[in-house]
Amino acid sequence: MSELNDLEQRNNRVLRKLVIGSVLMFGFAFAMVPLYDVLCDITGLNGKTSDTAASGEVQMDEDRLVTVQFVTTSSGGMVWDFTPQVRSVKVHPGEITQVNFQVKNPADHTIIGQAIPSVSPGLAAPHLLKTQCFCFDNQTLLAGGEADMPMIFYLDPALPKHINTITLSYAMFDVTERVTGNKDKLAAR
Predict the structure, then answer these.
(1) Sheet strands (E) in 38-182
(2) Among the listed residues 167, 140, 183, 164, the one whose alpha carbon sits nearest the alpha carbon of residue 73
(3) Pairwise CA distance, residues 111 & 101, whole Å
């Protein structure tokens, strides 16, 4: 009988440890997103760009040229054809530059898209300032529709001198369901 009690006590201890471990892991996973955002804000890592338009006048650094490359992908079930009109541009820090992105909806229904930008290297992200960008708002494209979407930007002259090439990547997501609550509502239009 003592052996049975002993075994039951050990099983209860193991069960408690497993439950506590599971609760701690869940709590840690839940806290990861805000902790990651704080870490990115502090260190400037991750390549997150601002989601608001930049403003103000900037002095152009004509002694320096930086290559800005553009990469696009359609993610999360997005069927749009999404491409930059140019793959790269050479700009002086402080020089205002416009680049257009082309998008086409080959589907037979209206789709709402949202572009999420990312900059590499991550240290360059706070220095790529957009005054106008299609990524600030959702984009709606009718069935078979096409559009040119402008992005106007400049590089902060405080961009570290060792950064000569920046890659601005956009991932386009289908947010139709999230925005409307139902894809079929737009398909019926």
Answers:
(1) 66-75, 81-84, 88-91, 97-104, 111-120, 128-133, 139-141, 146-155, 165-174
(2) 167
(3) 17
174 Rama sector, left if φ>0, alpha if ψ -120 to 50, beta otherwise: beta
Residues 123/98, Cβ–Cβ less than 8 Å: no
pLDDT digits (tens, 9 = 90+) for 24-54: 888 877 777 777 666 666 555 555 555 555 5
Query: CA geometry: angle at 122 spanning 116 and 126, to 5°?
Result: 80
Q: Is 48 exposed, middle or buried (0-12, 13-18, 19+ CB in 10 A)?
A: middle
Label residues 6-20 b or e (16+ Cβ within 10 Å = b). eeeeeeeeeeeeeee
Q: Is the peptide bond before 93 cis (omega within 30 degrees of 0)?
A: no
Furthest-apart CA atoms within the chain: distance in Å = 88
User: Which residues does the chain have with pLDDT short of 50?
Assistant: 185-189
